[in-house]
Amino acid sequence: MSELRWYGWGNAAKTFSLEHRPGAWDFLRAALDLSGDESFLPCDFNSIRLRAPRLSDEQLRALRNLTAPSAVKIDAMTRVMHAYGKSYRDLIRLRRGDIPNPPDAVVFPSNEVEVAQIISFCAQNDVTLIPFGGGSSVVGGVEPRDERLTISLDLARLNRVVSVDEISQTATIEAGILGPDLERELNARGLTLGHLPQSFEFSTLGGWIATRGAGLTSTGYGKIEAMTQSVRVVTPHGVIETKNVPATAAGSSILQMIVGSEGTLGVITQATMRVRALPKTKKYQALLFKSFADGVAAIRAMVQSDIVPTTVRLSDEAETKSFFAMREESQGWKAFTERIGLQFLNSMGYSFENGALLILGVEGDSASRIMSAAQAVCKSQSAFSIGEGIAQSWMRDRYETPYLREVLLDRGVLTDTLETATTWDNLDRLHKAFLQAIADATASTESKSLVMTHVSHCYRDGASLYVTFLARMAQKKEIEQWETIKRAATDCIMTNGGTLSHHHGVGYEHAAWMQRENGKVGMDALKALKSALDPKNVMNPGKWLEAEHSMVGLAMEYQERFWNIP
Amino acid sequence: MSELRWYGWGNAAKTFSLEHRPGAWDFLRAALDLSGDESFLPCDFNSIRLRAPRLSDEQLRALRNLTAPSAVKIDAMTRVMHAYGKSYRDLIRLRRGDIPNPPDAVVFPSNEVEVAQIISFCAQNDVTLIPFGGGSSVVGGVEPRDERLTISLDLARLNRVVSVDEISQTATIEAGILGPDLERELNARGLTLGHLPQSFEFSTLGGWIATRGAGLTSTGYGKIEAMTQSVRVVTPHGVIETKNVPATAAGSSILQMIVGSEGTLGVITQATMRVRALPKTKKYQALLFKSFADGVAAIRAMVQSDIVPTTVRLSDEAETKSFFAMREESQGWKAFTERIGLQFLNSMGYSFENGALLILGVEGDSASRIMSAAQAVCKSQSAFSIGEGIAQSWMRDRYETPYLREVLLDRGVLTDTLETATTWDNLDRLHKAFLQAIADATASTESKSLVMTHVSHCYRDGASLYVTFLARMAQKKEIEQWETIKRAATDCIMTNGGTLSHHHGVGYEHAAWMQRENGKVGMDALKALKSALDPKNVMNPGKWLEAEHSMVGLAMEYQERFWNIP
């Protein structure tokens, strides 16, 4: 763990260099009204005064007996690194050294029996348990939110590919495996899962399933709930193992109750996943539309006529403009502009200022055919093909962007993302509404906003919208500022027909809106499920089922205190 | 309702003629050791002594006030037609006039408010309520199984297409609509749902959703759970409405708890369904493989390489043999045999006695390309194309086969179907195991069996297996004989890695195996859900959640009594 950045994303030694992006800072400075003197640097780790672990010696001994002496950690670094996920609020608190409620211990079980025993220990000792995969939650999914003693259960050692069924193209895999390890093992057998979220390097199979995640190839390969054939989950009430079958009509779906349960019902220990042959061919292409609306029309026409690319990522005008303003001065880019000429593009009505960039990726034996068909649909919406190079540079950088967030935080820039999904007929309305909501809320915090959106997961009936927003940090009110914006954006999504989350999940930060999403009767159903499987509320308490613990009250208080919003 | 057959399937005036199938009876007589004198004819309806409705005049008045005087029926015909579904046991009991526990009334609400009021009435009056769509359940899904008074809630009047969103390709439709009405309304707008179960003409949208059904185009278009974007369901605890979004990560899936709930949690009143453009092109093809195993290899190779036909139906050797032995002497068939010559086929190693028939259907703009690719895969497994004619005759007859069951019952032939799904690697093992189990169990009832299987729903990771079994009826022990076979087959499926049901559902007849399917902890989760939404157990009691009411005990008793099986 020591190589990871304790106060933020990824490997400590790695950063996102803006060196070869000459326009980036000028663009951001202008867009966000930065003076250039802003900064928000992490505190010295050694200055953090962490509450001592509250487990008794006897309890620690018992835990060590259940696992192994080295599997129970109570050192400050391990506890800090399991105290939060990676949401904006998390990063702010880490940089400040503000960690009032860390887990009392972090336990690393090596098998399912140990998981079951640790759950029993917790139930008997009135200790809460938080399943921890990669800790990449951006919605407060792994943070202790309870006054009881808390153990963070790190599943890193449950990381084996248990078996592969090459006939059925499935693989049974332990939940704690990280993305790169999972793909390496499958690739060695000519297979892939094809679930590639931005957190891929630092997130786990169990985490993907627990949060109903989606990866960048989800348009072609589906969300994690479509990839999951069956799960094993240890609940305080016992083990649930769903059947390894392709489909069933044997009642309500228990599998789909576990997928998305976010550690609140039990610990997912393994899953059987639908895998596929590693594609031999991959095709990428970038296209420029005259408007986001044209691009949306094209990708809708594609998927509704069964032309389904593996990856679709359509940026709105603001994101397209930022992408090009902050672009790397690469050889590929130079070659492109010299070949085509920006003036020529402009004369044809295309613009990097007001256009919409589409990245398409198609994998598999039919990649060429599908890519041709997809491009034909795009061209019927007047798209201009700007080549493979730009698409490939985006693919290459796709796991790097989270490091940029650290650079921006260093320089005093708030940056966060949120996401939703809606039907095609509602997409434009929802998009316009939250752009306005975020801009207004940011303005109320006396900052200018930069709000960028893309569509990255397409379905026949709709798509997700993924939003990145930036602003100058409100000094000393960083979290209050963020909550003001987050609350306005989420309220707006709920009012305008979006879902609370398409793939980040609920955690603590979205819990206040769960009842608006599911209704009171739906919530009562979820609570009944929770009570049956976890009667003592051991598992990840204070998360999606308990709105009363959540941020709405806080945010309102902050708003009144700081921004005088009625 | 009067035009429907009260004691069995479909329209009373309609039958399945064997007149133009000269080989059919000879084949069956030989296969089943029939003397030709067997018969099992329905009783005279007027001879049925039906228990009087037990609702008081006051209760009937209250119900009529909640709906309309004509919406509350207590006549014998209506009550008989709502007493059972269409399982073998149901048809036997109907023909015998053995209907000891009919519903006390059948109520036809005209809107969701009335549904809610009727549910309240039931909860207040200790009356149970059974949602009734088309009544085509073959697993005892709509039969009163409770000693309390019972109302059958026929949703026939909730049959409107509420709205169509042509942009998102979704349609919001009331649950009681029948298949033909639904398709007619969608087709008029250039759209289709594409859910075509064999029961299509006599089953409803709500029933499809409540039972997790699948239609014959499910390989291409998916099962009903994939087609359902959202539902509205009235439970005794209140209304649940899931969101109209293409996907979500907002916790466990409430939608997928409702899909498959079989009326035990509440009444589905409407759903928003994913629809698609009506395909302009449809291609059909029949192919003959040298063996079922070759055919399975071919269809697996197809779907795993993203060549996905809309319809796939691969018969095993026994079903292929029966299909041809009982075929119609059509012009198409004559032309085929004259053109190709059966001897020539045989000399090439193909046989209707030992081969495997595959029906392929592909719909949509890419039909020709996909059909070519699918045929190429088949030919790499040595399939011989036997033309469109046979495929089209199967398509034409696909809703007629249930009428054949009535003809066979008339002549004293037990005939029933069951179905499961499993992974590709387990398909052969499971298939062989249940063939043996059904043959052995039938033999133990002193009859010969004819057991035929096809694969009709393919997934990347597996497929369904659909089994038809026939035997000479055991006189006066018709139900006991059937239970012996059904129990052996289902035990075998559960022991050999199949799911309890792929698309028929659970109802009463599969309830005894639900715990084996889902485990005790899984069942406790389902029971918690039930208790939260239906605390008084008003909704369709005695079905999938209540194994103690189920047939295992009965069947064991029958076995001991009649067949002396230890």
CATH topology (level 3) name of the domain at 24-154 in chain A: Uridine Diphospho-n-acetylenolpyruvylglucosamine Reductase, domain 2
Q: What is the rounded distance between the termini of chain A?
A: 45 Å
How would you sum up the major sheet of chain A? Answer: 8 strands, antiparallel
Overall mean pLDDT score of chain A? Answer: 94
Would you write up a description of this structure?
2 copies of one chain form a homodimer. With 566 residues, the first copy, chain A, is α+β, with helices and mostly antiparallel strands. Among the domains of chain A are: 24-154, Uridine Diphospho-n-acetylenolpyruvylglucosamine Reductase, domain 2; 282-398, 2-Layer Sandwich (Alpha-Beta Plaits). Helix content of chain A is 39%, strand content 19%. Chain A contains 21 helices and 19 strands. The two termini of chain A are 45 Å apart. The relative contact order of chain A is 0.13. Mean pLDDT of chain A is 94; it is low at 547-566.
Short description:
2 copies of one chain form a homodimer. Chain A is of the alpha+beta class and 566 residues long. Helices cover 39% and strands 19% of the residues of chain A.
